[in-house]
Hints:
CATH class of the largest domain: Alpha Beta
CATH superfamily of the largest domain: P-loop containing nucleotide triphosphate hydrolases
Strand content: 15-25%
Oligomer: single chain
Structural class: alpha/beta
Helix content: 25-40%
Shape: globular
Number of strands: 13
CATH topology of the largest domain: Rossmann fold
Largest sheet: 8 strands, mixed
Distance between the termini: 31 Å
Number of helices: 10
Radius of gyration: 21 Å
Bound molecules: adenosine-5'-diphosphate
Amino acid sequence: MSKNEAMAIIEPAASRVRDPKSGRSIWMAKIIQKSSIVEEQLSVTLALAEHTEEEQQRIVEAFRMQLGNIGWTGSVDISIEKSNNIKTPPPPKDPVRGMSGPGMGAHGGPIKKLPIPGIKHIVAVASGKGGVGKSTIATNLAIALQRQGRTIGLMDADVYGPSLPTMMRVTGKPIANEQNQIIPKEAYNIKCMSMGFMVEDEEPIIWRGPMVMGVIKQFFQNVAWGELDILIVDLPPGTGDAQLTMIQAVPISGAVIVTTPQKIAVIDAVRGVEMFRKLDVPLLGIVENMSHIDVGGIRAYPFGKGGGENTAAQYATPLLAQVPIDEGIRLGGDMGLPSALSSDPIANPFLDIARQIDEMLFS
Length: 363
Ligand code: ADP
């Protein structure tokens, strides 16, 4: 098998393993040094001279897991190159929307990604268009991860249409602590922050681009999140300034893309996937929402079939779940009682997504 064929197997797996030193994927950080495939044996050398033994071990384990996830069934021999020959890759030449690439600010200047002390992982929940259920997935994912024992924060960065206050049934203006940081509100043991807390109900929210960016930065830097295993960020739909600001402001462990199955939604979802890839944010997977509906024992597909599956296959990323259209999910959102709290099967897709994400982030 040629070197290129080996790389075709390695790239999708390596793109989903985060290098703790650079905050990029081990693929983009050029940690893959040599690779070959002889019969069913894949041999890879990783340049990890600057990493601690614990980091080396974590990377090797995560890489093995991702090779399995993309369907490699042969044996894997991973060796570690101890000499320091890692080269920093230059920023790519095809910036997103002509504005930026990894390591570059929205206006072309270098940017510094500042980790938030106390927060182990930041996970973005994004969609190409509105109304596909992004906020529903983000809130239910937060609850499901919390149910699995994680300490969770939920940040509603959808400053144009904040839905966290309704979906988590938490309202009122947050107060500041002595350090002048905003204390997040709590609902269902989850620390919540939303633009919806700051403005009156029904008040139109007209934010210009720079203000949106300011608000998102404030939410990262000026909120007393404390110790969190995961901060889930519900992004506004699309691939605009708000998304770029966020991706450039903090190191993101991964992104979950929510789509519905029909072609028009999938086209937008692909745009979202491309944005994260170009900015070197690992894709954790795709959630296909409103996949089907079960009525009287019959399954129907009002939005068509296969959109989420095909996108996941195209990008060699997991299809994390196919969430049905269920009146209970809608009611849960409207009443502020997320379905993931339930002990009924309605919670299962959300618990499933949470289990997979937990494994990707912490194993
Ligand atoms: P987005 O954040 O993408 O704009 P929302 O999460 O606000 O979308 O969802 C839009 C509407 O669809 C809400 O009323 C929500 O309760 C409903 N909804 C989302 N997912 C489902 C589902 N799987 N079944 C039924 N209703 C859903």
